[in-house]
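So, can you check?
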Amino acid sequence: MAQAESYLDHLTSCSPCYRDFLQLQADYRQRRTRMILAVAASVLIVVGLATWAMLRLHDQQIARAVVDLRDRSIARGTEPPPSEPPLEIPRSVTQLEIYLPLGSSDGPYDVRITPVHSETPLFSGTGGANLDQGLTVLRVDIGTSLARPGNYLLQLRRPASEWVSFALRIR
């Protein structure tokens, strides 16, 4: 401590040394401020990237919906069974994975989504059903983002067969 006192006495009495000391002190503060800003910017970038990745993953999960028809009764024609609650899918769905009723065969299927009291389809397309671990799974790309939330009919058929209808609610 005695050594430091001699330096401090000189520092307080010598203007050029005191000026150098103040410059070193200012440089230190500037480096510390830059370091804090760099750390804060890094944290913001990491948080931004993590948020973007989570939202992207969330969108991908919503983009595909599973519709399970294994326990549903089959109603031929354009009217679904009145006793069953409607199936539900979000508007953002771009791909449906439909588990067909037990005993359904694989191969091509026509799929359409129509308003409840209309024959004009909101969506119409085809997909191929495959056996996957004992389930007949029909995958079809759809676009329901323009649909209004409400009640619709999900209709399926094998080519040249009758439509089978299921109540559907788009959220």
Remarks:
- The beta strands are 64-68, 75-76, 87-89, 95-99, 107-115, 123-132, 135-141, 150-157, 164-170.
- The longest strand covers residues 123-132.
